Amino acid sequence: MQSGQTPCVVIAGRPNVGKSTLFNRLVGRRQAIVSDMPGVTRDYKEGEARLGGRLIRIVDTAGLEEAAPDTVFGRMRASSETAIGQADLILFCIDARAGVTPADRHFAQFLRRQNRPVLLIANKAEGSAAQTEVYESFALGLGTPLAVSAEHGEGLSHLMREIADRLKGDEKDALDEAGAPVRDTDASDASDDEVEAPINTGPLHLAIVGRPNAGKSTLVNALLGAERMITGPEPGLTRDSISVQFRDQKGEVQLVDTAGMRKKARVEEKLERISVSASLEALKMAEVVVLVIDALLGVHEQDLQIARLIEREGRACVIALNKWDAVADRAATMKAVSDRLEISLAQMKGIPVITFSALTGAGINKLMPAVRQVHDIWNCRVSTGELNRWFEGALERHAPPLVDGRRLKLRYMTQAKARPPTFILFGTRAEQVPEAYRRYLVNGLREAFYLPGVPIRLQTRGTK
Ligand code: GDP
Ligand code: GDP
């Protein structure tokens, strides 16, 4: 934002989420003016609003959708691009009642690449009818959604304060530039050594792993039977792996390696070695890993070993407790499993556990939604502003410890990359943060930004 100019706030989102309604709320119909925007054939609405003592320009991109051909997303994008290019802040609206749609996801992905501040708005959230959908929108990677009802005028004062706050942050960042390190560029410098996997727009890469006889083959067959298979078995990347593709409700899924199904060929090998090494191969190619555990046997040390591999490789994970049909005391079994995971897998807190029977198919429909959810979380991005608002609170609640008699000065955090979520902590002697404090921060991040079932990386960078 250039100083002296009126800051520009752009309202964007797919059609029908309530952009115009919000615009009218913020601007008031009186003030609405219509002006031409170069590059698009349709007019866009622009108005002024007063926030505190400050005048801001508000641009409504509604109605621009019809301007360009192609898909809904293509239309939204082409038409909104020009407006977004001038935005100091984007209000990205979703419909809290409809939940997050594929068009929202696409748009969010596009916005994340624009490198402009985005405030996620869950509109139509009057009452609290849409709580779960609001929750789901965390997965868009645009921070905590702000629930409002444009039509009923709920949550608007909160929204105005947020807008004012974000625009103030802009001014401050600009001022900071000379002295303090600049956030986002620092993040990309710091992550030189770790290149983020490209955003995968193709199928979701899924691996199903577990000990022999946990029921992996049965599960794969059930999945392929229940979902429409679009390609048959084809040679995979390793000598004896098989790769198949199928479609679930959200799109295509590639089973990267149906490991374990080859077990018959290798009976002479020690069972542990087979399952762990085969799992390792499979999960290297996967984005999400389903760890199948035989509920009749409970969590075995080898299951934990595989789970730790998943963590080490940075993959998202869902635990599938199979053979649920044959479990006599379900409550006791669930408790035993949860306790074991809680104690032995602290680094993957809150990992989703799904129970089903691969054999009968009961409960199997819960699996793919859980997989999709951790995949979204694995891909998510938390904005620097959001992150540091949380970080300040975390420092206040629990001050950094003394190291060699001096208190560590931790300054700020940024998310360097996703897949898995990787954060960088900057501060004087940040690299000396003790393990316990690091765990406190990681657990806090996991809770505050809702990141269950994915590894969280926290790197440290010392500053002068
Ligand atoms: P746009 O296409 O994104 O500009 O959406 P509109 O502003 O035209 O709104 C689309 C529809 O959603 C209209 O029927 C509005 O009345 C309705 N709408 C907008 N805001 C709210 C809201 O807060 N709650 C509910 N229930 N409906 C809303
Ligand atoms: P894999 O070695 O992990 O591929 O395991 P399989 O799919 O070959 O299954 C091992 C055994 O467990 C077979 O006898 C299956 O019939 C049985 N099994 C698999 N899933 C279930 C289930 O949900 N319930 C029960 N009762 N048995 C199952």
From TrEMBL:
Chain spans, region Disordered: 174-194
Keyword set, alphabetical order: GTP-binding, Nucleotide-binding, Repeat, Ribosome biogenesis
Residue sites binding GTP 1 per the record: 13-20, 60-64, 123-126
Pfam families in alphabetical order: KH_dom-like, MMR_HSR1
Annotated GTP 2 binding sites: 210-217, 257-261, 322-325
Domain EngA-type G: 7-171, 204-379
Description of how the protein assembles with itself and partners: Associates with the 50S ribosomal subunit.
Family: Belongs to the TRAFAC class TrmE-Era-EngA-EngB-Septin-like GTPase superfamily. EngA (Der) GTPase family.
Its biological purpose: GTPase that plays an essential role in the late steps of ribosome biogenesis.
Protein name: GTPase Der
Gene designation: der
